[in-house]
Amino acid sequence: MTTTQPRKTTDALMTGAEYLDSLRDGRAVHVDGEQVKDVTTHPAFRNSARSIARLYDALHDPATAGVLTGVDPDTGIRTHRFFKPSRSATDLVQAGEAIATWARASYGFLGRTPEYKAAFMAGLGVNADYYGQFAPNATAWYRRFAGKALHLNHVIINPPADRKRAIHDMGDVFVHAVRETDAGVVVSGAKMLATGSALTNAGFVAPVGSAQLEKGKAERFALVFFVRMDNPGVRLICRTSYERRAESPFDFPLSSRFDENDSVLLLDEALIPWEDVLVHRDTERATGFYAGSGFPNLYNFQSGIRLGVKLELMAGLLSRATRANGTDVFRGVQAGLGELLTLRDLVRALTSAMAHDPEPGPGGTVLPRLEHASAMRMAGPHIWNRVHELFESLLGGAPLAVPSSARDLAHPELRPLIDRYYRGADTSALERIKLFKLVWDAIGTEFGARHELYERNYSGNGEQIRLDALRWAVRRGSLGRYEELVQECLDDYDTDGWRRGPWLGPEQD
Questions:
Q1: What distance, in Å, lies between the first and last C-alpha atoms of the chain?
Q2: What does pLDDT average to over the chain?
């Protein structure tokens, strides 16, 4: 009788300090006409970087390490529970608890935390054979990713430059192979939207799953690879930093620390080493990985849990804000708050179903059921739009009735007047102003407006979300079953009356 020796457990997870140090690699990040020397100290990024570092420290904190980490039995690697493949519903439930624990650290306002890309990377090792000759690269990248809990993001969308043209006609803008060398493939082009990429260890570059890559014409665009942020020829051009514009935590309590800057990734004849390539000049594999990897199932699980945490904050915020206004006793206000609470519960129900009712995945793993994930994908944008409507209608102009900044509260002549005229129904003026500054940063500042756009487009354009839902229903047979149910109903009767069943016709009166 032979016994399998247990694998030796390895624990190389980064600490917060190690994560910050990993970003000091000479990467080319541009903002406000400046190439940033160190993203961990620059005022456009430093607090967001510290918010991420805090997550890494939680992996080692005795109070949270047990919830956040577990050992992958196939490799012996201790990692974040969502960074390893799940093999049971229990594993998915535990992964969900780990996701929620990290999400609460940013109140749900950091969308691309390190575990987001784990939705793809966790299955990379068990699904390595999909990548053919590059399968060893997939295995190596999974081990590297899980071992340290690397912070990765993806950039899979082509820039909005003449999108009506075929992809293979856009070689001046879209990412493509320029030439191959013994060392790797030289790549040029741009990708968006590199959310948070200034603070990641590497990016995952690929065509979006719905991309139309014409065989025989688009092979040089059929690339899937990892790009290290310090790779020569790689640049990030960032949008305006809301963190940098945040004058104080009191006035901008969210944007001053949770601004995951969006950027455009530029590749200017960047040499991608062969060991970082997953797909090369293969039009089918370049887009087929999307469905085969389980990514749609898993990223909607992660994003749904994060959205649920965000909705908990918003429900509590709306409750306290209406109470401060003295409108919490109004029937319509109570109905609106009840609706918001129900939206939170709906998200919780969907993510719970994803964990407790999984489907088989590659290599003996399990995945959240795709139908549940698709429902979450559809519901998310509607829910956040409705949150905005509820806040704007139930609070009216109250979020605007606050002093311009904390400095007004320090003004000796203004302060007595502010204390008198800005008080809430159940709070002091200071408490009310602080509360409504948080409301405004969540929904009304540039940061808040960006989150409205972000949640609306998080899972792709609205048409594609619906087309994917239809395609999945056809492919999996559920739409066919629904049509069979229609036929069953039609077969109950004809022009002569009931054909079957216990029902009586008029002639039997």
A1: 78
A2: 95
> In a 10 Å sphere around its CB, with 0-12 CB exposed, 13-18 middle and 19+ buried, how is residue 143 labelled?
middle
- Res 156 pLDDT > 80: yes
Query: Which of 145, 152, 58, 85 minimizes the C-alpha distance to 113?
Result: 152
State the average pLDDT over residues 359-366: 94
pLDDT tens for each residue of 266-324: 999 999 999 999 999 999 999 988 888 899 999 999 999 999 999 999 999 999 999 99
Reading the block at residue 151, the tokens are 């912070």
Residue 459: its pLDDT value, please?
A: 85
Tell the residue number behind the tokens 């997939």, with chain if given: 138
Question: The dihedral of CA 325, 330, 334, 337: what is its sign?
Answer: negative
Give the residue among 387, 380, 376 at the shortest CA–CA distance from 352. Answer: 376
Using CA atoms, how far apart are residues 175 and 134, in angstroms rounded to an integer? 20
Helix, strand, or coil (residue 27): coil
The full set of domains in the chain, from first to last, is 16-292 (2.40.110.10), 295-460 (1.20.140.10)
Rounded Cα gap, residues 228 and 354, in angstroms: 33
CA distance 308 to 92: 16
196: left (phi over 0), alpha (psi -120 to 50) or beta: left
Instruction: Determine phi and psi for 154, rounding to 5 degrees.
Output: -120, 155
Rounded CA-CA distance 281/257 in Å is: 41
Report if pTM > 0.85: yes
Backbone angles phi, psi at 153, to 5 degrees: -135, 170
